[in-house]
């Protein structure tokens, strides 16, 4: 039985979604791991302990969540988590030793996990597959006002060199890894993400609007996601203000206590634009309750400055709700302009407003887009993702050559870990 360690250091795969941290990555790790377990793999998902809960939690047959104590056992900002990566890697190794059973492969998610994954995989003598989910160089280029730390870029570069392979959710990210990070094309594999097609499917719009106490006749726009600047909600508010009155209602789903400041900023912007009454900040919605929101909406808007894959767009299309999205990252390969939604190449409100007008005023067009939307995402099944990933794991394990140790192999475990973690080589 092949045992796989999934490493999701900075956020738990089972965390509540939609605040400012937990989103697509969490959905991805849990869905992939669940499917791998269903295929017969034994999967352990390692995360940093950030609250209560047992060290080992059985999530499903063959699937466990392992909480490793590293730093304070409470939520920390991403930046403050960096200091505890070494302790986390040591904790994973200690847990593995205590259980006396190893892993065939380590699969890490996000750059901080990639750092831990490098140490763990090399010490266990097994291959390391990493998935960045987002890349600092790309975030910086997408939005000049935010600057990812240089330390992150340096460690992403190291991980690109050190991991046996990298997996991306879109071709776009593969190309960026080659161009911006000098990744070796032979080591980069693209496996599109999945969507739960049983959970996200077309439903009765009127019934869902009634259940959510929404106006049955008023056109409805929807935005879903972690409340962070990269999601481009400023563009959407600008677009809404340009629509003729009576305007549609806009529901913004997502955002927890940690994103309250940003939410207040957006609320003020909506007031300034004269659309305060039209916008409702719903807060985070449990993943299983989201289908009702997608179904209630006429259009889902994804105005992001960047999305490496963009699960929200795919979930919406699976529910038969067309999407108006920025032409960025993975969205360009899931949304087909003029078929199941519209892709907007400019990060400004006017073109969003224009396409929203077109869709809101044409029920027949919406109907056509809706049918095309559902059909177009039927290829994104988590089972398919897991089968492709399992094939990649097998390939990596078969090809694995233990890497030579760091300079002066004899210089001890601590020095070795310091070298790998801090980038001495
Ligand atoms: N999500 C959720 N509840 C919320 C907000 C978001 O369940 O209140 C989920 C959403 O359904 C999606 C994920 O969080 O599966 C966001 O993924 P996406 O790829 O769109 O964005 P990311 O978080 O990766 O930037």
CATH architecture of the largest domain: 3-Layer(aba) Sandwich
Mean pLDDT: 94
**Hetero ligands:** uridine-5'-diphosphate
Radius of gyration: 22 Å
**Poorly predicted sequence stretches spanning 5 or more consecutive residues:** 407-411
CATH class call of the largest domain:
Alpha Beta
Say which CATH homologous superfamily of the largest domain is assigned: Glycogen Phosphorylase B
How does this model look, in words?
With 425 residues, the chain is α/β, with parallel strands linked by helices. The chain has 2 domains: 3-194 and 381-422, Rossmann fold, CATH 3.40.50.2000; 205-379, Glycogen Phosphorylase B (Rossmann fold). It is 43% helix and 16% strand. It has 17 helices and 14 strands. The strands form 2 sheets. The chain has an 8-stranded mixed β-sheet, sandwiched between helices. It has a 6-stranded parallel β-sheet with strand order 11-10-9-12-13-14, sandwiched between helices. Helix 1 (24-38) links the parallel strand 1 and strand 2 (42-48). Helix 1 (24-38) crosses helix 16 (382-399), helix 3 (85-99) runs parallel beside helix 4 (111-124) and helix 12 crosses helix 15 (363-377). The longest helix has 18 residues, at 382-399. The site of uridine-5'-diphosphate (UDP) has 20 residues, from helix 1 and helix 12.
């Amino acid at each position: 039985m092949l045992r796989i360690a999934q490493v999701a250091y900075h956020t738990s795969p089972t965390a509540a979604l939609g605040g400012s941290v937990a989103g697509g990555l969490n959905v991805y790790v849990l869905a992939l791991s669940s499917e791998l377990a269903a295929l017969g793999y034994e999967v352990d998902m390692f995360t940093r302990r950030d609250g209560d809960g047992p060290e080992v939690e059985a999530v499903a047959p063959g699937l466990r969540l392992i909480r490793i104590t590293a730093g304070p056992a409470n939520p920390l900002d991403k930046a403050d988590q960096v200091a505890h990566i070494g302790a986390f890697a040591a904790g994973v190794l200690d847990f593995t030793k205590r259980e006396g059973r190893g892993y065939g492969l380590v699969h890490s998610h996000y750059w901080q996990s990639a750092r831990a994954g490098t140490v763990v995989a090399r010490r266990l003598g097994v291959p390391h597959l990493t998935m960045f989910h987002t890349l600092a160089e790309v975030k910086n280029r997408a939005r000049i006002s935010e600057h990812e730390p240089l330390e992150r870029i340096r460690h992403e570069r190291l991980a690109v060199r050190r991991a046996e392979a990298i997996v991306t959710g879109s071709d776009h990210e593969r190309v960026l890894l080659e161009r911006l990070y000098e990744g070796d094309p032979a080591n980069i594999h693209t496996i599109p993400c999945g969507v739960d097609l049983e959970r996200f499917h077309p439903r009765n719009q009127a019934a869902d609007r009634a259940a959510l106490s929404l106006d049955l006749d008023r056109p409805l726009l929807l935005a879903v996601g972690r409340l962070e600047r990269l999601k481009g909600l400023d563009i959407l508010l600008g677009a809404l203000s340009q629509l003729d009155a009576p305007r549609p209602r806009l529901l913004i789903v997502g955002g927890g206590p940690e994103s309250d400041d940003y939410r207040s900023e957006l609320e003020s912007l909506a007031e300034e634009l004269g659309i305060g009454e039209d916008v409702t900040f719903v807060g985070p919605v449990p993943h299983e309750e989201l289908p009702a929101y997608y179904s209630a909406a006429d259009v889902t808007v994804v105005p992001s400055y960047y999305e490496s894959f963009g699960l929200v767009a795919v979930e919406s299309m699976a529910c038969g709700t067309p999407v108006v999205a920025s032409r960025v990252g993975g969205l360009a390969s899931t949304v087909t302009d003029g078929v199941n939604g519209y892709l907007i190449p400019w990060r400004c409100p006017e073109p969003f407003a224009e396409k929203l007008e077109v869709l809101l005023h044409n029920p027949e067009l919406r109907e056509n887009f809706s049918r095309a939307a559902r059909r177009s995402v039927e290829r994104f099944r988590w089972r398919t993702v897991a089968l492709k990933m399992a094939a990649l794991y097998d390939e990596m394990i078969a090809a694995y050559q233990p890497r030579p140790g760091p300079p002066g192999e004899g210089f001890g475990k601590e020095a070795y870990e310091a070298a790998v973690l801090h980038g001495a080589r």
